[in-house]
Protein 1
Amino acid sequence: GGLPRVQALGLYLDDLECAQVSMNLLDFSVTPMWRVWVAVRDAAAGGGTGLEAWRLTLILAGLPTFVLALLFAATFTEPARRREAPLISERSATSIRGMVPFFLPLVVGAGAPMIIAAGYAAWAPETLKTEYGLSLRAAGAWFGIVAAVGPIVGSLLLPELVRRQKDRPFVEALLRVCIVAVVIGMAIFIAAPLQPEPAVLLIGYLFGAILMFGAYSTVIVSMQYIAPQSFRATLVASTTFIGSGIGLSVGPPLVAVLKEQFVGTYSDALVWTAVLAGLISLAAFLVARRASREL
């Protein structure tokens, strides 16, 4: 499984105490020979053994962010400041419980794209090396460049797009921009790893990161305007901590599990990671949009 247009059969040779792979490569333009060789090599090396120690370390590394968010929410008191024009009604701002139906899906929608970002950060250089033939040095260097540029551009561009929609309520403009960014970004992250050229994967990550990371940053920035004064700092910090925690603890192991247990290649695992994270983010933003109309 995981190699389209390939017919293969594995045979165990008792007298030689080894396994032999026999295959028919039906279309090398769909699945090149080197990708088949990598898949066989990984299987022979004992892939698919589950969560190893380093993956558990990644998961555990993400957990403290959730703990810090909870401690921050429980102990921090917002300092007095000049009161701004409220964008969320005072009726819903009287208690944090009344804000949960809106702010919880908003935070989840912002954090889910970080699953894609962390998954790519962990596995894109290896994908470029094993499936696209780049050296590890070149793969790391090129991915490092696009991974630095994309989030910066997205963090500057998308909040500005929200601010320019002066004819709409701020919350409606925020959610509209985030939903469109997630839909287009998810499509890019699905299509890019399926292309045969490494430049397409890198360019796709660049534009996908502008949109997906931009949605995450836009929600963080917008909390300064839409969150009630008494909970503003808590929600800004919680959005930041939860987003990074979701990405670090879910993204890299999700790609690894998908690759080893289900799809067989890193590129296909990145595609399905984008599908899952994108759908979670989109659904959460739509729930937040519906809840905002009741505030």
Protein 2
Amino acid sequence: HHVGEQPRGVGGRRLEEVAHVHEAHDVVDRRVGDRVARERQLAHADDRVADAYVTRDGLRRVLMPASGVVGTLVHVEVERGETVLLEGSQGTLLDVDHGTYPYVTSSNPTSGGASVGSGIGPTRITTVLGILKAYTTRVGSGPFPTELEDGIGQKLGERGHEFGTVTGRKRRCGWFDAVLVRQTVRTSGIQGIALTKLDILDGFETIRICTGYRLDGRTVDHLPASQADQARIEPIYETIPGWSETTAGARSWADLPAQAIKYVRRIEELIQCPVALLSTSPERDDTILVTDPFAD
């Protein structure tokens, strides 16, 4: 796990796929069997094992009716004219082929992975919406050019509650990296951005945006593939004024400070992609819908 993979991550599931364990009840039995083997080594083993089998039976009742050929089920809904939302689970730069190898996951979180994972052809996907924060974060090891290992980074983490949802690991925080985002927009063919956590930047006197990298005296506009080069790059920053007013809870452009709007517009210019919606708090309704990504 030295490259950042989570012990409770997808590794076990990927091994099951390789082993061709396709039946839902086989997967459940295998997982519960592993648990039983562990529980027998502990105190009160009989009670623990009994609980494990109760869990197995419950999982079977839930999973079996929901098992099937996903591609066929999705295809039927698309043919009926229904809107199907496919959600990626991790960041593009964790992609096993196009990410910051070896600090990656075992699958393809790029938009192309949506076809592979769902079993529908890429021409069926009509819209790709990218979701990102108004600053940059990363969980685990790997290159992070704009990381802030100071009070500002700590402030972003505390304000944004930056802890992994599965493991609780503290996320690394830094200024917005327009280079990485622009690279991601290209790799995944992103057509619009959902920009979240703008309110976390409230109150900063100045805000910095990474617009390029400096490598051995020259300027580069992408993250190098070489790990050695990645370790040597230095971010090139553009500093813009912050805002003292609050953006929290804003639901229209009119509710935003002028400087916050300028920040969003500058991000659009740098990443070469429009912001489709803007989130200003954890509440679902505190969203500014610029364009409807699901409109026909």
Protein 3
Amino acid sequence: IESISESNFLLRFLQGDFDNASRQILHESKNKKAALTVPLIDFLLEGVIVMNAEGIVLATNKKYHEMMGNTADEVIGRNITSLFPNILDPLFEIMNSIKNGNQVDLSSNNSIDTTLFTEDDHEIQARIYFAANLGHEEHGDKSTTCALIIIDRSEYIKTQNLLRKEKQTVESLLYTILPPKIASSLLNGQNEISFEVESATIFHLNIHEFLPTCNQMNGKQIMTTLNFVFAELDAGIQQFQRITKLKTIGDEYICSSGIFKGDGTKEECATDIVSYACHILNVMPNLNNLHNTN
């Protein structure tokens, strides 16, 4: 994108090769030769508006009109500041400096990310570049040819937002399935994760007579029951920093304390597991009453 302003193709246009004959189609429909001529900038995939340093629009391309929903008749001859009031003031300041004969640096600060609104109030997330037909350290004047190159970034931004949401979903899923420290390692690009554990306290829980109970429930009821039980177990673990959920298998829930460095002494890890088990015994009756289970 940054190379647009350095394109020889575009510079040829800025130097005056923007094919006046094609623009006369708007006023001379009888000129068959002109009607067959396509302006150079119509081959660009970005919207382009060409103006002099006074801001008078000299030419536009097809892509610009497709983006904004207007026509060349509505734009050519108008001052560029009336088409983009206020939002492009930093770029218009560059144009005014050129008009006043001041030297400008177009290698940086020559673009703006902004929101444009079409004729039918459709929103476009755009990046707009300013370009001018000036050589290195060359001063311009009011007749210097300038241009705005408009890039529609709406789909790009929409895609980035979707990717960001998907990334958050994947991260959330990993933290649900894996121990937090292992999930973090995977998300940070660590592919091989292995370590030795000298000692740890393992807590293994399953639901009493769950299989016989399943015979009296349909699939949806079984999954709903497991979901609210495991959700309560997960919430309880959050109260104990040393305890890590390892996995669930059917109605079995397995967690541990002491498998990671820094979890504490053996006694502290065992105490946390016992405290967690007591917490589950205390909340389970309330859970049964809430969901009418036993």
